[in-house]
């Protein structure tokens, strides 16, 4: 009886289909595992970056517990002053950029010529 089953064409086809199904399932599992491994690596890099950022922020927070550093930060960021101090703000001088923008093209040069002519 086993010889008859072993030599059966239908049984061979069924076993081949099962083998292909198992192979496809194994391939999908391997691909999923590789995807998870890549995700793991990316997440480890993010964790390292966030840990470094946390340490930097903790160091900055520790630095700001000193009154002199806190005062310097308040002056720099919030433009605060101590009583008796004066704050001086230096504003850069604006350059005339309109002449450069207008002078592009034939019509721009013509407009610039007439502006200079009637000044």
Structural class computed from helices and strand pairing:
mainly alpha
Beta-strand share of residues: under 5%
Biggest sheet, open or closed, and with what strands and sense? none
What spatial form do the alpha-carbon principal axes imply?
Answer: elongated
Individual helix count: 5
Termini separation: 115 Å
Unreliable spans are: none
The topology string of helices and strands comes to HHHHH
Helix percentage range: over 70%
Number of strands: 0
Q: Which oligomeric form is depicted?
A: single chain
- What Rg is obtained from the alpha carbons, in whole angstroms? 38 Å
Salient structural properties:
0% strand, elongated, 5 helices, 119 residues, mainly alpha
Description of the molecule:
The chain has 119 residues and is an all-alpha fold. The protein has a domain at 21-77. It has 5 helices and no strands. It has helices at residues 2-6, 9-63, 67-78, 98-102, 106-117. The chain starts with a helix and ends with a helix.
How are the secondary structure elements laid out?
Elements: H1 2-6, H2 9-63, H3 67-78, H4 98-102, H5 106-117
Task: Describe what is shown at a glance.
With 119 residues, this protein is mainly alpha-helical. The protein has helices at 2-6, 9-63, 67-78, 98-102, 106-117.
